[in-house]
Amino acid sequence: MLDSLSRSVRRRLLTVSAAVLVVCGLLVWWLVPFGTPAPSGRVAFSTGVPTGVYQRYGELLQQALARDLPDVSITLRNSEGSQQNLARLASGEADFTIATSDAVAQYQRDRKPGFEQLRGCARLYDDYVQLVVRKDAPVRSVADLRGLRVGVGQEGSGVRLIADRVLAAGGLTPDVDIEPVSAGIDTMPGLLERGELDAFFWSGGLPTQAVQALSERFPVRLVPLDATLIDNLHDVGESNRHYRSAVIPADAYARAQDGQPVETLAVANLLVTTDASDSSLVEGFTRTVIRSRDRIGGQVHPAQLVDLRTAIYTEPLALHEGAQRYYRSVKP
After folding, report:
1. 323 alpha-carbon distance from chain centroid
2. How many CA within 13 A on the CB side of residue 160?
């Protein structure tokens, strides 16, 4: 009987001990963090001019990141565009930015400070080059801009880079054959409307709100940039191979296009960071970019074109380790 009692006591002790171990294990699991800690801290995101697509996209992405990465504080910084954005990354003034692939390639080609540290997170959407003139202007090609006042974008912008190249491909020397006006998309439409410009270049997603608004209040049209021009661009140098032939759909700017598609060239936008950025932060940032596509795309049409299948192609930049980790995690 004592033996039987002893066995019963031992069974109860073993049961109690097992329960205690389970409780202790649960307490350890609850109290001690496992895996990669959630990213935290302050992050600067360099965008673009206030009325441009970069800025609006950045504002909506900031809201999505606030939901997905609540311990990360995102500050947006206006800029003149791609070239200034890359310089800010290299100097540590920004942690993330958007830049066109041609601007990145030129930055690398010029071996500017910090070019080796640049890394890609995602290919986003394409920018379309838009050459805007008054509807009654005699300009039918880039060559017809000779002697005219032409808005070419601000210094440090991707627009300035591509405008100079398009002018050269059209047989014009930017500082000699035209009167270049350094201005951004926030001021060029008004200058054209007031007769202070004869034409302006813009490179952005479709439709760009500032161009859309101009076309609805003032008669303008888009000048075609044909395949021959793009062939000439490709002959110039390495960083120009990032341009491709494209078509602005007939309904992008209905009043400016009279129901007709317009030939042009396009270049990819990249989400860029540096190799110094925390991998967990980059992984989370990239995840939000992909997951928020439809929500942001409802307000910024170009964002609808962000695609997981093409996002990994960030040439000429190597993918950041954190971005690679995200893409591996969602690979089918």
Report:
1. 15
2. 17
